[in-house]
Amino acid sequence: MLSYQHICNDRQWKATTGLTSQQFHLLAYHFGESYEFIHGLSINELADNIEVELKLATYPDCLFFILFQL
């Protein structure tokens, strides 16, 4: 599976997400805050409640998937 953790430079960041590494991580932080505000729980609390292992277990994982698909 393609992961943001394997991206080495800003050229690759721009090609996969349209953002630099710094922009991506700032957006991931705000994505996490918004997720928790809307759902009332963190992604980890949600995973614990439904007792499954999530494929996209972190906010940066979720955001990378969304941006890569776009």
Explain what the structure shows:
The structure is a single chain. The chain has helices at residues 10-17, 21-39, 43-50, 59-69. The protein has one domain (4-69). The two termini are 17 Å apart. With 70 residues, it is mainly alpha-helical. It is 66% helix and 0% strand. Helix 2 crosses helix 4. The model has no long low-confidence stretch (mean pLDDT 89).
Q: Topology of this structure?
A:
Elements: H1 10-17, H2 21-39, H3 43-50, H4 59-69
Quickly describe the structure.
The protein has 4 helices and no strands.
Question: What percentage of the residues does DSSP assign to strands (E)?
Answer: under 5%
Shape: elongated
Low-confidence stretches: none
Q: How many distinct beta strands? A: 0
**Topology pattern, helix = H, strand = E:** HHHH
Quote the average pLDDT.
89
Roughly what percent helix? 55-70%
- Sketch the major β-sheet: none
By DSSP (H or I, 4+ residues per run), the number of helices equals 4
Could you say which structural class the secondary elements and strand pairing correspond to?
Answer: mainly alpha
State the domain count: 1
- Write down the Rg: 13 Å
**N-end to C-end Cα span:** 17 Å
Attribute tags:
70 residues, mainly alpha
